[in-house]
From TrEMBL:
Alphabetical GO biological process terms: siderophore-iron import into cell
Protein localization: Cell membrane
Species of provenance: Methanosarcina spelaei
GO CC annotation terms, alphabetical: plasma membrane
Main localization (coarse): membrane
Molecular function via GO: transmembrane transporter activity
Swiss-Prot/TrEMBL keywords: Cell membrane, Membrane, Transmembrane, Transmembrane helix, Transport
Family: Belongs to the binding-protein-dependent transport system permease family. FecCD subfamily.
Protein's UniProt name: Cobalamin import system permease protein BtuC
Superkingdom of the source species: Archaea
Job description of the protein: Required for corrinoid utilization. Probably part of the ABC transporter complex BtuCDF involved in cobalamin (vitamin B12) import. Probably involved in the translocation of the substrate across the membrane.
Organism lineage string: Archaea, Methanobacteriati, Methanobacteriota, Stenosarchaea group, Methanomicrobia
């Protein structure tokens, strides 16, 4: 099933590259991508060896510079950013659901999305560029989760419950701060920018804007993938996990920190995007079963495919790009109702 999901992701990726206001046929899209990859491999070898090698499989450029720019410099970086964000949100949601043993937990349960929103709003108010806005969103997202952990450390009676409640408190606090920043923002310039960012969009995604968070996403995701079989044990309970030799005091913070990094990185790339981390793990669980060894991989592939398909709809459905969080919410609510009906109030 995961191989089928991988093929689905490739299909959605190719589709997103030829759809848009500047149409490009699918064959040309594939040729441009393959040619660009081969050229960069040749450049990398030339930088290492100092010798420019002419590969016999090099593809002659029969397309215009405009088409090459549209596919390689505009649509491909955006598609990669969307896939990374969707995969990160889905894995984060699946990890939280396993750690907290609650299928209704989402990736924003610890307040990271609200914290990132405050950071972005502050940067926008100070008239900063896209890079500073993303960095501020990332830092404030981590700050919000740090505050959540600090509150949970005070009360040790039920660490899991207190951590969730602390996340709700911090999320509410930072949401209030966002409302305050929107209230004091200039209604003609700053306020529209803040509102649009909070609704989510990948319109400004480019290689320069998200290249710094790529290592964060890949490393955090790799850690969760390597530890994913532990989630099967910890989802059975603290005592069972300890009896099987898992150090829950070490494992739980590690996966929560990695999940938080994934969510913060995804939010700083595309803004606040809801429902992905809640819906995709449920669908993955229906497709491959509750075993996290398969379900985490399925969430990575399905999360990237889903968010990329939604982003393609947002930028092609109307003449003006629709904020992506609007569409994910419209699709997510009925999908979640259907999943609840299928599950019949049980989770296994």
């Amino acid at each position: 099933m995961n191989f089928i999901l991988f093929l689905l992701l490739i299909g959605v990726l190719i589709t997103s590259l030829f759809m848009g206001r500047y149409p490009v046929d699918p064959v040309t899209v594939v040729v441009i991508v393959v040619s660009g990859i081969l050229e960069r491999i040749g450049d990398a070898i030339a930088n290492i060896t100092g010798v420019k090698i002419a590969f016999f499989w090099s593809i002659p450029h029969t397309w215009s510079i405009i088409v090459n720019t549209v596919v390689w410099d505009v649509r491909l970086p955006r598609a990669v950013a969307v896939v990374l964000a969707g995969s990160g949100l889905a894995v984060s949601g699946a990890t939280y659901q396993g750690v907290f043993r609650n299928p209704l937990v989402s990736e924003s349960i610890l307040g990271v999305s609200a914290g990132a929103g405050v950071g972005a709003a502050l940067a926008i108010l100070m008239d900063q560029g896209t890079g500073v806005i993303q960095l501020s969103a990332f830092v404030f997202g981590l700050l919000a989760v740090s505050m959540t952990f600090a509150i949970s450390r005070v009360y040790r009676s039920n660490p899991t419950l207190v951590l969730v409640l602390a996340g709700i408190i911090i999320g509410g606090l930072f949401s209030a701060v966002i409302s305050l920043l929107k209230f004091v923002a200039d209604p003609y310039s700053k306020l529209p920018d803040i509102v649009f960012w909070l609704m989510g969009s990948f319109a400004k995604a480019s290689t320069a804007n998200f290249i710094l968070v790529v290592p964060v996403i890949l490393i955090a995701m790799l850690v969760i993938v390597l530890l994913r079989w532990h989630l099967n044990v910890i989802s059975m309970g603290e005592e069972e996990a300890r009896s099987l030799g898992i150090d829950t005091k070490l494992f739980r913070p590690v996966v929560i920190v990695c999940s938080t990094l994934l969510t913060a990185a995804a939010v700083c790339i595309g803004g606040v995007i809801g429902w992905v981390g809640l819906i995709i793990p449920h669908i993955s669980r229906m497709l491959v079963g509750p075993d996290h060894k398969d379900m985490i991989i399925a969430s990575i592939l399905l999360g990237g495919s889903y968010l990329l398909a939604v982003d393609t709809l947002c930028r092609t459905l109307t003449s003006v790009e629709i904020p992506i969080s609007i569409v994910t919410s419209i699709l997510g609510a009925p999908m979640f109702l259907y999943l609840l009906y299928r599950a019949k109030k049980t989770w296994s």
